[in-house]
Amino acid sequence: MGTYFKQQDLDRLRDLRQTLIGIEGRPPGEEAPRYWHDLRDIELYDQIFGARIGWKWDAVLDELEARHGFPEVKTVIDWATGTGVAARKVLARVPGIEAITLFDRDEAVLEFAKRSVQAAFPSVEVTAVTEPPSESSHLAIASHVLDELEEEGVESLRQTLEAADHVLWVEPGSKKTSRDLSVQRDRFLADFQVLGPCVHQGTCGILTPDHKNDWCHLFAKPPAEVHTTGEWSEIHRELRIDLRSLPYSFVALRRRSLGHPEPVQAGARLLQRPRVQRGRVLLDLCDANGVREDQMLQRTDKALFKELKKSNGEVLFLDVSEGRAKPV
Ligand SMILES: C[S@@+](CC[C@H](N)C(=O)[O-])C[C@H]1O[C@@H](n2cnc3c(N)ncnc32)[C@H](O)[C@@H]1O
Predict the structure, then answer these.
(1) Structural domain ending residue among the three candidates 258, 276, 311
(2) Pairing relation of β-strands 125-129 and 139-143?
(3) pLDDT means per 10 residues in the chain (328 residues)?
(4) What is the distance in A from the centroid of ligand 1 to the CA of 312?
(5) How far apart are CA 137 and CA 317, in angstroms?
(6) d(CA 211, ligand 1 centre) in Å
(7) Total of domains in the chain
(8) Which range marks the domain in which residue 192 is found?
(9) pTM for the predicted model, two decimal places
(10) What distance in Å separates the CA atoms of residue 173 and residue 247, rounded to the nearest whole number?
């Protein structure tokens, strides 16, 4: 018996986690299982896994706001909304949204999402649909769905995203799904500017033959409550989840025909976590020249070395040359 969660709930969370993790590695052609068995699954997902996904969205929205400011959007579509966590994060941060369409193939989870979004944002018009929306929107979002889709599903998702002015698409930071997202990113290049995580508008450097074993993933910072509350400590213990680690991948896009100038970003994007060795830190960097490993020597800047050592997504861009690094 758990102290904070009932044993049945912990068992459910364990099963749900196993199912969700297993989806990525299922045999080709096998459909992803449906896992919303009843309302309790939905509530627990929202409380635990949804919360963790929400912290990844916080990191993405922080980056988007810092680099480009939020776009002016009135209408949003959330494709495969699940419990609506991404929708709620976006509505909480991006000003001016008047209407949101939530889409999911599962009616029960969709109903939950609709109620939770309406309760949190009573002035926003919320529509819930079980068929892919055919209308266009100012912003289309998707989160943690790519590995559940077969080709037809991916094309249906793309139709919604490609019809939008802005796109925010967040996925786990696992190798396969992140690489799949990079492939999808490149398919947008003709019609969309890339606002993040990339600092360039070229094809993705991770997809070159030299980087077959790499993937573009980042780490979000979980909130303090993860380390201080009994509930999260129990989740850590019982589900064996490393709560400090929140790997994610994402792409943020803006339609070219809106006429915005090409985004400019100095320095190279730091991917994954810096790897500390004696007297130096190894850095995976990405810019218009591709993805490369570089290093920063401790003796060149002790304060920055320390910051990089404990960096959990705080340092995004660096200029690195000859063992020296400069944050930009
Ligand atoms: C892991 S959940 C993620 C939900 C939410 N976007 C989030 O980030 O928490 C994936 C959701 O995708 C939905 N889904 C899977 N395949 C779908 C499809 N082909 N069409 C619509 N929804 C789909 C599932 O019902 C589920 O609610």
Answers:
(1) 258
(2) unpaired
(3) 90 97 94 97 98 98 97 98 98 98 98 98 98 97 98 98 98 98 98 98 97 96 95 96 94 98 95 95 96 97 94 89 93
(4) 28
(5) 31
(6) 29
(7) 2
(8) 7-258
(9) 0.97
(10) 4
